[in-house]
Amino acid sequence: MLAPRPLGGRIITPTFVIASTLALIAAAIVLYRLVFGLAAVTNLSDGYPWGIWIVADVMIGSAFGCAGYAVAILVYLFNRGEYHPLIRPALLASLFGYGLAGLAVIVDLGRWWQFYAMFVPWYMNPSSVMLETALCIAVYAMIICLEFAPAVLERFGLNRLNARLKRVMFAIVALGLLLPTMHQSSLGTILVILGHKLSPLWQTEWLPLLYLLSALLMGLGIVVFEAMISASGFRRPFEVEILGKLAGVTVVLLAAFLVVRIGDLAARGAFSLAFRPDVRSLMFWIELSLMSAPLVILGPPANRRRPQTLFLGAFVLLLGGIVYRVNSYLVGLTPATGNWHYFPTLAEIMVTLGLFSLEVVLFLLFVKLLPILPARHKAEEAGRT
Amino acid sequence: MPDDHGTIAGAEAGVAELGDLDGYRRSLGGMRRRDFLRFCTGVAATLGLSPGLGVRIANAAVAAARPTVIWLSGQACTGCTETLLRTQHPSLESLILDQISLDYSETLMAGAGHQAENWKAAALKQNWGKYLLVTDGAIPTKDGGIYCKIGGKTILESVTEAAKGAAAVVAVGSCASWGGVPSSSPNPTGAVATNKIITDRPVVNIPGCPPNPYNFLATVLHFVTFGKLPELDDKGRPKFAFGRLIHENCERRPHFDAGRFAIEFGDYGHRQGYCLYKLGCKGPETYANCPAIGFNDVGQGNWPIGTGHPCVGCTEEGVGFSKGIHELATLQSVAPPLGYPGVVEDKGQGVTPVAAATLAGIAGAVVGAGAVMTSRLGHHPPHPPGPPQTPSPPPAE
Amino acid sequence: MSVSRRDFLRKAVEGGAAAAAAVASGGVPEAEAAGLQRPPRTLPPDAVGLLYDGTLCIGCKACVKACKDANGMPPDIHADQRGWNQGTWDSPQDLSAKTLNIIKLYTDGTMAVKDRETDGYAFSKRQCQHCTDPSCISACPVSAMTKDPSTGIVSHHPDRCIGCRYCVLSCPFGVPKFDFEDPFGRIHKCQLCNHRLAENKLPGCVDVCPTGATLFGRTADLEREAERRLTLKPGDRAVFPRGGLGGTPGGARPSHEKVVAAEYQQHIYGKSELGGTQCLMLSGVPFDKLNLPTNVPDYGYPTLTEGIQGAVYQSMVTPVVVLGGLLAIAHRNVKGSD
Prior knowledge:
The structure holds three protein chains of three kinds.
Chain A: H1 14-36, H2 38-41, H3 52-64, H4 67-77, H5 87-108, H6 129-155, H7 159-192, H8 207-233, H9 240-268, H10 279-298, H11 307-331, E1 339-340, H12 346-369, H13 376-384
Helix pairs in contact in A: 1-12, 3-5, 3-11, 3-12, 4-5, 4-7, 4-8, 5-6, 5-12, 6-7, 7-8, 8-9, 8-11, 9-10, 9-11, 10-11
Chain B: H1 12-18, H2 33-46, H3 52-61, E1 68-73, H4 79-85, H5 92-98, E2 101-105, H6 113-126, E3 132-136, E4 139-140, E5 149-150, E6 153-154, H7 155-164, E7 168-172, H8 173-178, E8 191-192, H9 194-197, E9 203-206, H10 213-226, H11 239-242, H12 246-249, H13 253-257, H14 268-271, H15 290-293, E10 346-347, H16 353-377
Parallel strand pairs in B: 1-2, 1-3, 3-7, 7-9
Antiparallel strand pairs in B: 4-8, 5-6
Helix pairs in contact in B: 1-3, 2-3, 3-10
Chain C: E1 2-3, H1 5-18, H2 20-26, H3 33-36, E2 48-53, H4 62-71, E3 102-107, E4 113-114, E5 120-126, H5 135-139, E6 145-147, E7 154-156, H6 166-170, E8 177-178, E9 187-188, H7 194-198, H8 204-208, E10 214-218, H9 219-230, E11 237-240, E12 256-259, E13 280-282, E14 296-297, H10 302-313, H11 317-337
Parallel strand pairs in C: 1-14, 2-13, 4-5
Antiparallel strand pairs in C: 2-10, 3-5, 6-7, 8-9, 11-12
């Protein structure tokens, strides 16, 4: 088996500096928001109470964070050991995706100092989709930490603790499979209560399934994407063989997603709305194009073995997933009473940008300092066997 | 007596025409020149004219030939006449007697019986086409109008006959203006307003029960001065007096706006002078200048609402004596737009150039980076199919 | 007026059929939509509410002022007036964190006649509808929104609210509002003046209404009163009560007699919409013109979300069973892979 190793190398690189700067700017804006309130930095309103901090950082960030979930399904549920080298980088993506989504939630909460109420049993509202989602995400964040813990323990030679952890790892892994299934579908269920306020192009009782499938797709997409980027950036070999197989799984899931999505639209007769000359229709077609394109790109098996098409397919898939989430949370929403407008402020955009930059900074730090990426010489050895 | 030229602003130019009025004290109804000019200026103000025109009114009032006025009373309570007698500055009766020639008035004239009727006939004949006809009280039409007769003639006949030679017709009071109390349901006498009888010329209506005497006086003097009637609204009422709703000038309006209403007579709100709308005040649907000029010249607030009683809408046909006194008014002045938020309002901050540019920049950078990455990866050959093999050779470090 | 539950379900099931294969492979325990809906909630026994009759409203805004006084709300200055209006003139545009009750105006063309759809105008009052099956309560993760089991009044409890604003997003009527301008802001919404009801006083808006356009009472009584008004024709004389129906709370108010001026829309808004609301509305112009959601199902949206959640997480049986399976598989595979 390929044992992962710390990458080593210089920490301070141009990418690291730029990303850190953006993250610091975001931190300053967040501080300003905590002192002067949400209205001081955001365009949030009673019509659009959730802006890009929720949609981009939480909905999209946590979907990116499904990398660990998606690979874990393949490795542990379907016992496909060949994907195992991908699991640590994928878990790292999950860790940041969820960790920073949690951070974004705290910043976005209007009464963040009462966040603990979420965990007070007698305050909990069992019928709330939001509660289920929040608790799931909170527990899952801890699970990811535990799943990821061996990397840290190995690095610092805490082998006895590591061995003890490995004995219960199966339970952690099982929870790590269950929880995202629950909350990623619930991110879709959250929208069902909007009823008529969400355009029929997106509003459906199949939202939970669509959100689960798209989260899996984005998780797989981010694994491929991130593997290609790190291979290119760190000048490492492309794990095309294994990524190609992953892409094959992606194609099947994507086909399922499109069948549900289009079938549901057709069954409800909502397609007529897609031909109106408005922004909503435009965004719908952009979304559908981006979600369908990877099927064409990754469909032919030859393309799944070519780094270029593999990357392009994953990249377009991620864009499609992003647009789907933005559409269903913002573009498709018609707030009650009145003609509401929302477009993120510069500060909002900078915070989101800073948060994603922070992910880059942390990813760079972690892969250089901790055993995450498969060691190269071992990979070569494995190749020869 | 010292000359008081300067007391009335803008009056200087016209004063010379009046000459030494103090020599004609009797012709001014006992007023001194100064008082007379002040009165005429007051009339001008009631009409909404500039003070300078007060002098023209004064000139007109003292012109040699006093215009003849024929005053016919129908189904009236004499309140309209009484209200004229109650004006205090000046003592109006002297002006009526001296400035206009009140040749016939059932209430005020000294003569009676055939003497009075003959005098009326003579006056009509003498001033045919020039005199002013004033009517008060409604005119019964049922059964040939037999329910109101003077000197053996129905008032219907009298008014019809007198109207033929009148230069102008003024209907004073609600009864003459739109029927008033006598015309209220079930209206057993078929009482109608003057303008239902005289249809061939405009009838000026000065409604009110009683009407404000200054509205009548101002209208008459406007006619005397300019030789024409003041501007009238669609119900024949002078706009200077009936152009605005009572509700608009009411001193209790702030209470209405603040939602403070008297609910019962004598309750806390009523004692505090709150809005009387809930007690049935018809101010919101009644056009009159009552809150602006008040009654009886005793100071501010002397009018029905000022004394704590809801307006009954006496100047408004279909409101006064038709609606219940405590029935709620139908608001006329809320006709939009008057500061109400629409059912759909634009809210929230839309796109700004900076934010749009930033987002577009980020999106462009992401797509651009993806494209660059894709094209760079194009240099790598496709991976051969088959079992796991050595990945691409590592580039030089 | 509304999509029947049956139609909605039929469509949902049709959609479900198309995607049935995908579901089977996706492994999500998602049954047919029909089975997913939880039963709608029913009106609490002593549910109270308001009846707003737009044809009686004179637009005096006394209720807006009284609401501010009763709830200690600050003036709400329209954005366009911030330059000169220093709080002397309250000019709310909509319900907001500073305005819990507002009179809105529908206008068309020349705006000549009240309660006429074309070339007319009409007033409309907005406050919390106090839904029978409220979305905000279903949405709130920390039970900061509660519905009184007896009166059915929906109240907010800021002491536990985390400010997630899901209630703001989920409310079909756009009622709960968050104070974004305050760094320590909170949700504000009409609570039917339950602090005044506790003192045997009428809600502020009802207390001052001069025409009885806003009535307080048990929802069942209000509905009967509304039914009575729907039988009235323009020109009829009718007596309209003021204050609380039946004289409670705070004693009877004088009613008034009035000639019916406008033709009522033959519908009581809130009787069936989205599972019904405790506050009802009558109008002379179609309700959709007043920007109220009309093409909506006759059940509350929480029946769907809670149905989906309930089907999946009923007593946590499904997750536990799934977890058991996952544990077994993972136990084998984790061993095998490491």
